[in-house]
Amino acid sequence: MTQPALDPSRTPTLVGRSSSHFTRVTRIFAAELEVAYAFEVVPDLRSVNAADYAGNPALRLPILRTGTTAWFGSLTICRELARRAPAQRRVVWPEHLTDALTANAQELAVQAMSTEVTLIMSQLAGTPKDDAQLAKPQQSLLNMLTWLDDNVQAARARLPQDRDVSYLEVCLFCLVTHLEFRKMLDTTGYRALTAFCQEFGQRASAQATTYRFDAP
């Protein structure tokens, strides 16, 4: 899967980091939907200047700039990418998950991604891993991974079989592979999640968006 040629007059700019799982969600969607984009790196995640996040007042990434408009957050960006896709794709969005199992899987996948960010930012701030304030998010992350590992196969089985891509599966893939990339914990014990990532990782969109640390 090759990225379409860039047209400076129409090409949106994705603001994020190659090491970010939330950013990778949008990059996978862009590849799956064949939407070209320019990429701009946020240099320092410790910055408290909204200008470094393309004006996002939450001081978070990713952001998609389309002309004078900015779209904040992975899900919002993925929806805009779908609107820009040259051909219609069968996308399973969170609102399509109307049973408890799949809806809870989506919620926990995103919550786990956010919890990991909390732990990473604590590391950057020099907070010891055994700090009492980190006990709850650390246990929360483990609990969520266990639940997702126990339920990922059943949840995927309930997704439409004719889908091209689902937001749930992209989030799950980006979460689990990011935990390994950042060495937050060993995920090999989560066998169902590991098997899923091995399968999903064969997609061209996954292979084209591997994690790496951007040069300073």
From TrEMBL:
This is GST N-terminal domain-containing protein. Residues 20-83 form the GST N-terminal domain. It comes from the Bacteria. Gene3D superfamilies: 1.20.1050.10, Glutaredoxin.
